[in-house]
Amino acid sequence: MKKTLFGAAALATALLAAACGSGSTDTTDTTTSADVVVVSDAWVKASDTGMTGAFARIENAGDSEVHVVGASSPASATTELHEMVSAEGTSMVMQEMGDGLVIPADTTHSLVPGGDHLMLMDLTEPLRPGSEVSFTLEFADGSTEEFTAQVRDFAGAQEEYVPSDDGAAHGG
């Protein structure tokens, strides 16, 4: 009986080791936010200098939330995630998202004029209609997603910007 229990324990240990080995095809632990995000309908408001906004649909096709913590573009010195908020005594103003953007599982979040958007600050060159701008989204898990956006003429999106007093947070 002692020999049978020992043999069963050894077999169980061997099976467990084989299941955890490098030959496993289970990749659920290696899926990144960038693997499940699809960016579509991306465009940028044309501008000669200063600041402008970028807009898109960001779909999270995964089964858990993704957290966008930053963005960058060679078209600007700084690219920030912005949101629109009510400011005391004024209409809506834009400010940097303090904690980034969380997109729940199996949903799409739209970056739109007058709403959440990417803000390109201190443009490196004029953005002319018909050209394209590249972007990189940065996620909390360290992964990144690259996409391009077409530059378009757009008369709207004349919102006020609330600059940061200390460079760490935006607000009024």
Keywords for this structure?
2 helices, Immunoglobulin-like, 172 residues, disordered N terminus, 13% helix, mainly beta, 11-stranded mixed beta sheet
What's the SSE blueprint?
Blueprint: H1 2-20, H2 33-36, E1 37-45, E2 52-60, E3 66-72, E4 76-86, E5 92-96, E6 101-103, E7 107-111, E8 117-123, E9 132-139, E10 144-152, E11 160-161
Parallel strand pairs: 1-10, 5-11
Antiparallel strand pairs: 1-2, 2-7, 2-8, 3-6, 3-9, 4-5, 4-8, 9-10
Give an overview in words:
The protein is mainly beta and 172 residues long. Mean pLDDT is 82; it is low at 2-24 and 164-172. The longest helix has 19 residues, at 2-20. Strands 1, 2, 3, 4, 5, 6, 7, 8, 9, 10 and 11 form an 11-stranded mixed beta sheet that branches. It is built from 2 helices and 11 strands, in the order H-H-E-E-E-E-E-E-E-E-E-E-E. It has helices spanning 2-20, 33-36, and strands spanning 37-45, 52-60, 66-72, 76-86, 92-96, 101-103, 107-111, 117-123, 132-139, 144-152, 160-161. The protein has a single domain, classed as PCu(A)C copper chaperone (Immunoglobulin-like, Sandwich), CATH 2.60.40.1890.
In angstroms, what separates the terminal alpha carbons?
77 Å
- Under CATH at level 1, the class stands as Mainly Beta
Q: Radius of gyration from the CA trace?
A: 23 Å
Overall structural domain count: 1
